[in-house]
Amino acid sequence: MKRIGMGLIGPGFVAAHHLDAVRRLGDVDIVAIAGSSQESAEKKARAYKVDRAYGDYKALIADPDIQVIHNTTPNYLHLPVTLAALEAGKHVISDKPLALNAQEGRKLRDAALAAKVAHVVTFNYRGNPLVQQARGMIARGEIGALSFIHGFYFQDWMTTPNVYSWRSDPAKGGVTSALGDIGSHWCDVAEHISGMKIVSVLADLATVVPVRYSAGASAEAFSSTVAGERRPVEVQAEDLASVLLRFENGARGCFSVGQVLPGHKNDLQIELNGRTSSLKWRQEEQNELWIGHYNKPNCMMAKDPSLIASDALPYVHLPGGHQESWADAFRNVIQDAYTWIREGGHPEAKPAPLPTFEDGYRSTCLIDAMLKSHAAGGVWTSVEQN
């Protein structure tokens, strides 16, 4: 089998997980990485055991040994970097969010379709076996028509005001924080599992920590280790939010997100209530799927290849009782991406669960609607997408 060459642009927190995932596939060569300068790129290349380093992302994209670009840059660079890769005819795997707003998201979606290459957004929770199990159960009508979808995504890594990164800078992270960063994941999981789209939202946003203290450099996600004298920076992006939802079939929903909630490390939970049964999945206990009943005892389904449905089975790699993790789910999404890439990115060859730029664009439309709802004083706002 011919090996595929990939290059990564933006070697920050999530870059290590992209590199780990492709190495585990066994048929992908990590050719090069590109950073903000030649010096920083070479430092990261040594740390990640990569041979080539570029201080200019355009030089990496031009490398003839690279067929796939992984874009893990800060949000404000997603548009120019991804456009340059698409114009060069390279397949693109972009970290989420796809873009800063819906206008940019639509531009990237359209450019990817025009380029006729594989285009993937890393909504990695789709790669969890029990997410796929829940999706299949709902599609087969096993819990009845859905009436209510609800949950949360809570973190605490931004609890201290001493955490400041590009995510809090609207010029680099965008005007949204918690909703764009983790609310996007929750909404994608909700729509993916349910098979239904959110059609309108009513949002309430808050900034619990309005002043943060910067040491002049950007801390990586889940870190506050930047040293140096700190200066105060006013922050306007939300770090806490709650949103009411209406789905296309009349089902209702709600979710909350927060990144300043002590004790919650990476706590995503979603529950889907049907007319006959309910399903609940929690990321921090991701090897279990709760199944609720009204006329018999509730039960807990463990991730076990002997029990899981055939459509979810490709996402299971270990026997029952052997716990699979965040990194394994991420690897599943990357494997689906390279399955599509090996087929040239032809639309009919895309694995069904794989999130594309269409999904990334949709996510920007959802977040834009939530921001508009809050700005209007908390009113129902339609999700617009074209």
Overall average residue pLDDT: 96
> Low-confidence parts, pLDDT < 50 over ≥5 residues?
none
Classify the helix fraction into a percent range. Answer: 25-40%
Distance between the termini: 39 Å
Biggest sheet layout: 9 strands, mixed
DSSP summary, beta strand count: 17
Strand content: 15-25%
**What integer value in Å does the Rg equal?**
21 Å
CATH superfamily of the largest domain: Dihydrodipicolinate Reductase, domain 2
Structure description:
This protein has 386 residues and is α/β, with parallel strands linked by helices. It has 2 domains: 4-125 and 334-356, Rossmann fold; 128-320 and 363-375, Dihydrodipicolinate Reductase, domain 2 (2-Layer Sandwich), CATH 3.30.360. The chain has 10 helices and 17 strands. The chain has a 9-stranded mixed sheet with strand order 16-15-14-13-7-12-11-8-17. Strands 3-2-1-4-5-6 form a 6-stranded parallel sheet, sandwiched between helices. Strands 9-10 form a two-stranded antiparallel sheet. Strand 14 and strand 15 form a beta hairpin. The longest helix is centred in the last third of the chain and has 19 residues, at 357-375. The mean pLDDT is 96.
Question: What is the fold's blueprint, element by element?
Answer:
Elements: E1 4-9, H1 15-25, E2 28-34, H2 38-48, E3 52-54, H3 57-62, E4 68-71, H4 78-87, E5 91-94, H5 102-115, E6 119-121, H6 129-139, E7 146-154, H7 170-173, H8 178-194, E8 198-206, E9 211-214, E10 231-234, E11 240-247, E12 252-258, E13 267-274, E14 277-282, E15 288-293, E16 299-302, H9 326-342, H10 357-375, E17 381-382
Parallel strand pairs: 1-2, 1-4, 2-3, 4-5, 5-6, 7-12
Antiparallel strand pairs: 7-13, 8-11, 8-17, 9-10, 11-12, 13-14, 14-15, 15-16
Helix pairs in contact: 1-9, 4-5, 5-10, 6-8, 8-10
